[in-house]
């Protein structure tokens, strides 16, 4: 019986984390309330503290989940593209990250681009998760470029990608957003790319 209770608690915890990960992407940290997350998870507000000691703990775990999902989706899409279209892994990453689809995916895309400027105002626990995820992203880029004759600096690539995505999302002129993405692509890959 205890095993079933533990399994149910784990499933409920998972529902809360999934709902919170969606909420922070959609509404940012400040716009994510415990009540709304619990409602989205199909639970009552009163059960929250059986799963988390604080809202900040929930936000940190939600950011970790959202970051994991983002990296998994990005590199999964890039791996498929590299394998099927005979492009370099870095080219596939750049094309996937700077795609029109990713620009539009504010509710499911990169958490660094979506929450970056807001993260600096958060708790040390949340900043620690963000830092770990950023380092993970840079390491994945580094691994994809390890065999190149002149591999680009992973942190520079990461910065160019995130910066271009942020700018493409905030401007109200799609053509300008595409110019920014194309410029970042040329800078990172050293050639002209068409999307």
Describe the protein's architecture and organization.
- The protein is mainly α and 195 residues long.
- It has a domain at 54-189: Tetracycline Repressor, domain 2, CATH 1.10.357.10.
- Helix content is 72%, strand content 0%.
- The chain is built from nine helices and no strands.
Defining traits:
195 residues, Tetracycline Repressor, domain 2, 9 helices
How many individual helices? 9
The general outline is elongated
Unreliable stretches: none
How do the helices and strands follow one another from N- to C-terminus?
Answer: HHHHHHHHH
Please count the beta strands (DSSP E, at least 2 residues each). 0
Class derived from helix and strand content: mainly alpha
Short summary:
The chain has 195 residues and is mainly α. It contains nine helices and no strands.
Spell out the blueprint of helices and strands.
Blueprint: H1 2-27, H2 34-40, H3 55-85, H4 89-97, H5 100-104, H6 111-119, H7 124-144, H8 154-170, H9 174-189
